[in-house]
Fold each of these.
Amino acid sequence: MVVVLNGVLADECPTSVRALLAAHPGYRDAAAQLLSAAPRVVGAPGLLYVGQRELAAVVPHDKTVSIIGSDDATSCIIVVLRHSGSGAVALAHLDGAGTAEAAAAMAARVQQLAAGYPEGRLELQLVGGFTDPHRFSDDLFANLMLSFHRLSVEIDLTLACACELNTSLSPGGAAAPLVTGVGVDLRAGDLFPATFPDKGPDLPLRSARYITGGPHATQVLDIYDNNVSMLRIGPFNYDPLRGVDLWLQQSDDFILQHLSTTPNVQPPHFVHNIRTTLKFIQQHPFPAVTVFPDNRPHYYRRDEHSGGWTLVRY
């Protein structure tokens, strides 16, 4: 009903970047501005990192978070929803699973955090994905646009640096994404290209959820508790991964080719992270028993000295 394009309510929602540009060519300039910005390497202090199939929402006056961001999005798309009046931001890293539910959850979280601010609008920014051989990103872009369009609130699309607008072509015609990570400066409200060497705690556990199966595997999990300003992981379960021992015996190239949707454009650390995740799954085939035995989340508080996250013991 209510995606707003260039200040005008859209009766019909464009479901491709090409259709969007045909009606509103100004989005090309907005994407070019992001692409021309120098990428930043963001360290752990003040960072709230959001992984694949995760979302988080935060406000500018949060005492422990100054930047929220995500990276390593090749065929995935990073979604940012911001309330211009309060500065409340929700960010998600989506791969096609749980898209509609994530869009609704992001809108609800931002509206909740923006309560009491009479002025302001919801602004949507989509970054990531490229013209990949299987068109995964194109399908995800379409689902994202439709998911936000179906919500009952007005949402202004201000940036769509995705798919063909985020694609570089080599002389041989091979496609690759131009921007694979972004951060949002909560105080300034600015979005910028970024990479994040420190991706926060429990990364093998968090990654295990989306490369296995089970009822929790396709959900997009909210990983931040605003009430206590703490990172929150779980609880969740996943199905045992059959043949995990055999996977760990394979070559790096075999893992890259068979466990990535876009093997030609993955970052150098991709295989290392996958191996670490597979080893975690091998050690914890039933996380509900060994990782979350009391069915309670893992809570992490910001460490004032290191700037990273420290597990809170109850």
Note: The first helix runs from residue 17 to 23.
Amino acid sequence: MLINPFRTLLSSQWIESVALLTGRFALAAVFWLSGQTKVEGFSLNLMKEGDIQLGWPVLKDSTLFLFEHEYNLPLIDYTLAAQMATIAEHLLPVLLLAGFMTQLAAFGIFVMTLVIQIFVYPDAYPTHATWLAISLFLMIRGGGQFAVDYWFPSRRIT
């Protein structure tokens, strides 16, 4: 008897949106913090009128060392791999938190997680399985009501 009201509550769109927001936050936090460990900061470029433009991340020497000697990524130069991973670990979390292009950002996290699992830390499968499950949930359901995507009807998942 108590199960039906509980099931009804959990199946509401609002509760699902809270779960989606929590998943977006969880993945964003993990990947953002990982990205932060790879950089010393961001380069600054001076524009013509004295404006300052934020540039590319400045990678730590330790980041390049890890990509060259420990991460064993095939078919890609370690410097390019480090830059791509660092940019993705900063851009994808921002998209996830905003719920903007949620499914694409979750797909990016999914692919990064597979690469990490297969080539970098194959023994960390319990953690990676969690990331994969959350990213799959976001790819299937989208960002929910608390996402920028929700306000664009053509992007909504029903």
Note: The chain has one domain: 23-155.
